[in-house]
TrEMBL record:
Taxonomic path: Bacteria, Pseudomonadati, Pseudomonadota, Alphaproteobacteria, Acetobacterales
InterPro entries listed in its UniProt record: DUF4238 (IPR025332)
UniProt-listed Pfam families: DUF4238 (PF14022)
Protein name: DUF4238 domain-containing protein
């Protein structure tokens, strides 16, 4: 069981286990590219997986008891990453996944779509503003909507709410998005494969937006690609015959180049590789277009209908514990 009483400051949106496959053996570091400063100059350095891909307090749930404030990081995402690491290792070894591990890998893909700082900030903004707006609209209609057993008036209703109600509901929303049963079912039913590139001149890169999914999930040409290591890539697709034909007729070097082009262009801040050999390749792509952002963006996309409905979680994950009454 994860230890909620440990209060980690670093909340990793790029799991440490995922980046380790790019680390060199002699010191456990991987090549990182990122832009800094007003000129956005590209910098490169060797980093440990624990030193990158995190933001302090990213998933903290304020107003909860201290032992529960890091629940999303230590309990939910901690379990997601633990199970995903096992699934990733079996994929790399070309071993069959049990149904539970297949679900775990689907969960990893969904979590990587939603757990980056920009997505968390936007979901948080929409959730808390929507919750407060709903609360304001409830007050003048409370007497009309009140049912038997409810507090006698709105003030009593507010007083009856447990501390941290908003935060617990927000945690359930995040959990439901990263463990969505409908999306997980779609991913599960796609055709899965692991492609090896043992002899290509270049190796696979990854980034802070590692999931390549250019056509959504509902089309015949939809696919999900993610580098597992510098030499192996996971692919899930709706039309396996099409992608097997591509694999047969397109060189490995071209496939690696296409993946790297996508994963670097859609990155926000960080690109990772097994070496700094491709500095010019990264410099010509990183930050030259908006980062991959699946979901709504203020002023650009309309909020989807039913945005305030909490998705149902597929896995057997517990909810945030309630405060214990002494």
């Amino acid at each position: 069981m994860a230890k909620s009483t440990e209060h980690p400051r670093k909340h990793h949106y790029i799991p440490v286990f995922y980046l380790r496959r790019w680390c060199r053996q002699r010191d456990g570091r991987l090549a990182q590219f990122h832009r800094v400063g007003p000129t956005k100059r590209l910098f490169k350095k060797w980093v440990c997986p624990t030193e990158t891909g995190y933001k302090e307090g990213l998933y903290t749930l304020p107003n909860l008891e201290p032992e529960n404030q890091n629940w999303l990081e230590t309990e939910f995402l901690g379990l997601v990453d633990k199970n995903s690491a096992e699934a990733r290792n079996k994929l790399i070894a070309h071993e069959d996944l049990s149904p539970d591990l297949k679900d775990s890998w689907c969960r990893f893909i969904m979590s990587m779509i939603h757990r980056n700082p920009e997505k968390i900030a936007e979901i948080s903004k929409v959730w808390y503003e929507g919750y407060d707006d709903l609360t304001r609209r409830l007050e003048p209609r409370y007497d009309e909507l009140r049912q038997e057993g409810d507090p006698p008036n709105y003030a009593a209703y507010v007083a009856s709410q447990k501390q941290g109600t908003k935060e617990r509901l927000f945690a359930n929303l995040i959990k439901g998005m990263m463990d969505s049963e409908p999306i997980g079912l779609v991913l599960n039913n796609m055709r899965w494969a692991v492609w090896d590139f043992p002899h290509t001149w270049k190796t696979l890169m990854t980034s802070d937006r590692p999931i390549v999914m250019p056509h959504g999930l509902a089309h015949d040409d939809s696919y999900v690609g993610v580098a597992l290591s510098p030499r192996r890539m996971f692919l899930a697709c709706n039309n396996r015959e099409r992608y097997e034909k591509i694999l047969k007729n397109v060189s490995g070097d071209r496939l690696v180049a296409a993946h790297n082009d996508a994963v670097v262009r859609q990155a926000k801040d960080y690109v990772y590789a097994a070496s700094h050999f491709d500095e010019s390749f990264v410099d010509s792509r990183l930050g030259h277009q908006p980062p991959q952002f699946l979901g709504w963006i203020p002023g650009q996309y309309k909020k989807p209908d039913g945005w305030d409905a909490i998705p149902q979680s597929k896995g057997n994950f517990p909810a945030v514990p309630e405060k214990r009454e002494d």
